[in-house]
Design brief:
Layout lengths: L2 E2 L7 E2 L4 E2 L4 E8 L4 E2 L4 E11 L4 E2 L4 E3 L5 E4 L4 E2 L4 E3 L2 E2 L4 E2 L4 E2 L4 E2 L4 E2 L4 E2 L4 E2 L3 E4 L4 E5 L2 H24 L24 H6 L2
Parallel strand pairs: 1-4, 2-4, 3-5, 4-6, 5-7, 6-8, 6-9, 7-10, 8-11, 9-12, 10-13, 11-14, 12-15, 13-16, 14-17, 15-18, 16-19
Antiparallel strand pairs: 19-20
């Protein structure tokens, strides 16, 4: 993977974490146990420190960066959706950052909070635990239900499983030229969008 040392500081990756070969890690980046870093994520620890705590994940095309002297942190079981930008902020334990959301400097996202897709969390904003946050600029919409928090936990568990699957079997290959007979599909019973979970009630 593109992993770069700068000014004598090099990234640290726990052996049980999976970092895709097309992610980029620079300098003061610390990846904890059982983390997943997706393709094209950019974790630039060339000014401030970047930390992924145990079991957290950061998905495709996400960016983590911060000013000098700051830590940009995803706490234990934090979950960051595709295309999000985290700059000098803290994502709390078991929180979820939606796709293409932006979390600015010194913002703090509380434990088990969900930040909606495309939300803009302004600098310095402190969001309490177990809230739904949405909008540009982001505002607290309401408390989360137990069902919503359980759905988030299940989703993060899927990414923790993906870490194990990727370490065990993800490798470069040559593509087939046509679909083989009896081609199988991945089966994940019960893994469905939150809107479908709510329809089931």
């Amino acid at each position: 993977m593109p992993c770069y040392e700068i000014d004598g500081l090099r990234p640290v990756i726990h052996p049980s974490a999976y970092v895709h070969p097309d992610a980029v890690l620079i300098g003061d980046v610390i990846i904890g146990p059982r983390c997943y870093v997706a393709p094209l994520a950019s974790l630039r620890g060339d000014f401030g420190r970047i930390v992924l705590e145990e079991g957290s994940n950061i998905q495709d095309t996400c960016v983590m960066h911060g000013f000098p002297g700051t830590d940009t942190v995803i706490e234990v079981d934090g979950h960051v959706g595709h295309g999000a930008v985290l700059h000098g902020c803290r994502v709390g334990r078991n929180a979820l950052i939606g796709m293409n959301a932006v979390i600015m400097d010194k913002a703090s996202i509380g434990e088990s909070t969900i930040v909606a897709a495309c939300a803009f969390v302004k600098a310095g904003l402190e969001i309490p635990a177990r809230k739904l946050v949405a909008g540009m600029p982001a505002k607290i919409v309401r408390d989360l239900s137990e069902q919503e928090i359980a759905w988030k936990i299940d989703g993060t568990r899927c990414y923790q499983d993906l870490t194990v699957r990727s370490l065990a079997s993800l490798r470069p290959c040559e593509p087939l030229t046509e679909i083989e007979a009896g081609r199988t599909r991945f089966e994940f019973p019960g893994v469905i969008p939150l809107t479908d979970v709510k329809k089931g009630n």
